[in-house]
Design brief:
The complex is a heterodimer of chains A (about 290) and B (about 425).
Chain A lengths: L2 H31 L2 E4 L1 E6 L3 H7 L2 H31 L7 H13 L2 H12 L5 H8 L15 H25 L4 H9 L4 H12 L1 H16 L3 H6 L11 H11 L3 H30 L1
Helix pairs in contact in A: 2-13, 3-7, 3-10, 4-7, 7-10, 10-13, 12-13
Chain B lengths: L3 H20 L11 E8 L6 H12 L3 E8 L4 H12 L5 E4 L5 H6 L7 H4 L12 E2 L2 E2 L2 E5 L2 E6 H7 L10 H17 L5 E4 L5 H10 L14 H12 L6 H6 L4 H6 L3 E7 L2 H11 L7 E4 L16 E3 L2 E6 L5 H15 L1 H8 L10 H8 L8 H8 L2 E3 L8 H16 L5 H16 L3
Parallel strand pairs in B: 1-2, 8-9, 11-13
Antiparallel strand pairs in B: 3-12, 4-5, 6-12, 7-9, 7-10
Helix pairs in contact in B: 2-14, 6-7, 7-9, 8-9, 14-15, 17-18
Classes of the chains: A mainly alpha (about 290), B alpha/beta (about 425).
Chain lengths: ~290, ~425
């Protein structure tokens, strides 16, 4: 082995050992546990595909899956639009633009528990300022937000969008800065309107960033856990129960680690499948 | 260099074997040799019961030191304990906070048989919950029960007669509504009652009091009248709605302690909390009392009858990986913790021990700030306590789905009947068939 190879390995090894011990190994074990009945203590009993067959007839699993899709379908486009809008707004040479960028990024670095407490109070059906405002503009029957099975998911989606848009805005800002200014100048000389410049210069220039953001956002949306856990705990009823919380419930609260692992594999397969599709679509477009 | 590596590995292996051998030695135990056993607890700075037990035991067993090891509070306690037990790093003696997870620990082989240590404790009512196939696997040291706390000043202000021990749930509902009107008339914003968001506040009483109610049957019809009364009180404005309590993160401590509500159904642990909060200024100073929980019907009301309520015991178990030289000391500790001496010491800090005797009642009511009326003493000392979480493989799963049912019914539900029938079919298809 050459000196360089040894040096290279010695740099990679600590990180790789950590990754292998804390991520790779548990994931490999998960794939085994999913085919067993295991309550943490003692030996896991091999049950073949029983956990997956159980899932098929488990109404709560389907509720959790439906809710996860509900969250993703609204959260992804809303966050994408909000983040891109913010990035366009804050990409100009304005006074205090850095200040506004920081403000927009703030929700992302704020403690999730604090966010949940404050938003829950804002959403409070009887005493919250949001319903007070709705009442003031003439809404007679304002929603019950997190206290209502119908409105709890929209409430969570609003807070989720608010929380993550700052982070994705930052990625879009970085993307916007890679678009050469000459393209805009040329378009302007040709008499393109601001909308035409956005559609024909900005959007194509942001293609790679948009792809990257969409992939990250999709995975993040399907794995949503902490926000919902602290805001609604999955309730009222099962109205905001999502897959990752269902996994936690079955595993850590009911000690059914085999079944919880099987549900994790389904969640993994969904995230993996959608990402593969996104890559394929992107590749076709590129060619 | 190349030869050094195998040498290091064999040395390490040899050392590990030697160390492992030490732990499992069968040498005779000297009863007076100094021993240290470790005990799991939570929030050690604000939960004095563990230190009280450790210090009290040291007084009679000078050679044994009980070393406290802090664990997470709340629901995370069991997650952390299960992980540590599975990893073999758990303390020698650990606490089971409620009965819900006893099945997991016992069936998983994580509890030493302690039948010999608990044989003299037959009169402790909760002991039976920890017996499987004639063997005992844990010693209960505290047993809370749910009672009705009430604010005498607010009752007087609203000109409503305070509880006299004869209340059924209809009397309670009626009083809450009259308090609501009376307090409003007297210019107070306080509500008649406060029902905390725990599922226990409805389901615990319904399960304990309704004849033939059985959690494990998967038939939840017994919950219906209890939910209807809660919804009735919410609609009348006599108690804050479930949604308000949830979204505003109301705490029962502030709600009763700051005189926002005249009545509160809560476990007897709240006595110690209320006393402490008065000292720290987190609660107001006012006249209060304890009454028996309202009853299913008249047959169990009145101070000549025994009211029925619920409450899970808290118990100590021994980690089977404890070294043999410590087992005797650990068993002695369990015997002490569940016995009368520890009971008196625990009552002295406001904790309700597993067996309430006259000495325990005297000790608790000797504390500064505890009401002195006869009904309070009766409510504290006399009742039949049923477990909230009957020991079974299915308990954790059923309680999770009943918790979801609880929030569904008390928010903008599809009606009590629809939610209960959904819960029943879920129980059958998702829990009881597993």
């Amino acid at each position: 082995m050459s000196r360089n190879t040894v040096a290279g390995w010695s740099f990679i090894l600590p990180n790789f050992v950590g990754f292998a011990a804390l991520t790779l190994l548990p994931v490999a074990v998960l794939f085994y546990v999913a085919f067993t009945n295991w309550n943490v203590f003692g030996v896991a009993e091999w049950t073949g595909t029983a956990n997956f067959r159980r899932m098929w007839n488990d109404a709560s699993f389907w509720t959790a899956l439906r809710n996860t899709v509900y969250y993703a379908v609204f959260h992804i486009p809303l966050t994408l639009a909000a983040a891109l809008g913010l990035a366009l707004l804050l990409n100009r040479k304005l006074r205090g633009v850095r200040f506004f960028r920081t403000i927009a990024f703030f929700p992302y670095i704020t403690s999730i528990v604090a966010i949940a407490v404050v938003w829950n109070q804002l959403f409070s059906p009887e005493y919250g300022p949001i319903n007070a405002l709705l009442g003031a503009v003439g809404v007679d029957n304002p929603p019950g937000w997190t206290a209502s099975a119908t409105w709890s998911m929209p409430a969570v989606i609003i807070v989720g969008t608010w929380r993550y848009m700052g982070y994705y805005m930052l990625l879009f800002l970085a993307g916007l800065q890679t678009i050469p200014a000459q393209l805009y100048e040329a378009a302007e000389t040709d008499g393109a309107s601001p909308w035409q410049r956005f559609v024909h210069v900005t959007l194509p220039g942001l293609r790679h960033t948009t792809f990257f953001v969409t992939v990250l956002l999709t995975i993040e949306s399907f794995k949503v856990f902490d926000l919902i856990l602290v805001m609604t705990g999955g309730g009222p009823g099962q109205s905001t129960l999502v897959l990752s919380q269902y996994i936690y419930q079955k595993g850590f609260e009911e000690n059914q680690f085999g079944y919880a692992s099987a549900v994790s594999i389904v969640l993994f397969a969904i995230c993996f499948g959608i990402t593969v599709i996104q890559f394929m679509v992107n590749k076709r477009r590129n060619s | 260099m190349k030869r050094a590596i195998p040498a290091v590995i064999s040395a390490a292996t040899a050392l590990t074997l030697v160390l492992a051998g030490c732990g499992g030695g069968d040498e005779p135990v000297d009863p007076n040799a100094p021993v240290t056993i470790t005990l799991a607890g939570w929030s050690l700075s604000s939960t004095p019961e563990f230190k009280t037990l450790a210090d009290g035991f040291k007084a009679t067993h000078p050679n044994v030191t009980v070393e406290l090891k802090e664990y997470a509070a709340g629901n995370d306690y069991d997650t952390q304990m299960i992980t540590d037990l599975a990893a073999g790093t758990a303390p020698d003696v650990y606490v089971m906070k409620n009965l819900k997870n006893f099945y997991t620990y016992q069936s998983g082989g994580q509890l030493l048989d302690v039948s010999d240590a608990t044989s003299g404790l037959d009169s402790v009512p909760a002991l039976a919950s920890y017996q499987v196939d004639g063997k005992t696997y844990a010693a209960p040291y505290r047993q809370d029960s749910w009672v009705l706390f009430y604010n005498k000043d607010l009752f007087a202000k609203a000109k409503v007669a305070p509880p006299d021990g004869s209340w059924t749930w209809d009397d309670y509902t009626d009083a809450a509504k009259r308090l609501h009107t009376g307090l409003k008339g007297a210019g107070s914003n306080a509500t008649g009652a406060y029902q905390h968001t725990f599922q226990s506040t409805v389901q615990g009483f319904a399960l304990a009091q309704t004849p033939n109610a059985d959690l494990l049957s998967g038939d939840f019809g017994y919950l219906k009248p209890y939910y209807e009364r809660s919804l009735d009180l919410q609609a009348a404005g006599a108690q804050p709605t479930f949604g308000t309590a949830k979204t505003n993160k109301l705490t029962y401590q502030a709600q009763f302690g700051k005189q926002q509500s005249a009545m509160l159904l809560m476990g007897t642990w709240y006595v110690a909390t209320l006393l402490n909060q008065r000292k720290s200024g987190d609660a107001d100073t006012f006249q209060w009392g304890i009454a028996p929980a309202p009853q299913f019907d008249k047959s169990t009301t009145g101070t000549s009858a025994t009211p029925v309520t619920f409450g899970d015991p808290t118990a100590l178990g021994i980690n089977p990986k404890i070294s043999k030289s410590k087992t005797a000391a650990a068993k002695d500790f369990l015997k002490y913790a569940a016995g009368p001496e520890a009971g008196k010491a625990l009552a002295g800090i406001g904790i309700t021990p597993a067996q309430v005797t006259d000495a325990v009642t005297a000790s608790l009511f000797g504390l500064d700030g505890v009401p002195q009326d006869d009904l309070s003493k009766f409510a504290y000392a006399t009742h039949t306590i049923k477990p909230e979480n009957p020991v079974s493989k299915h308990t954790a799963g059923l309680q999770n789905l009943l918790n979801e049912t609880h929030s569904a019914i008390l928010s903008d539900s599809k009606g009590v009947d629809a939610e209960l029938s959904k819960a029943q079919s879920r129980a059958k298809n998702e829990v009881l068939n597993q």
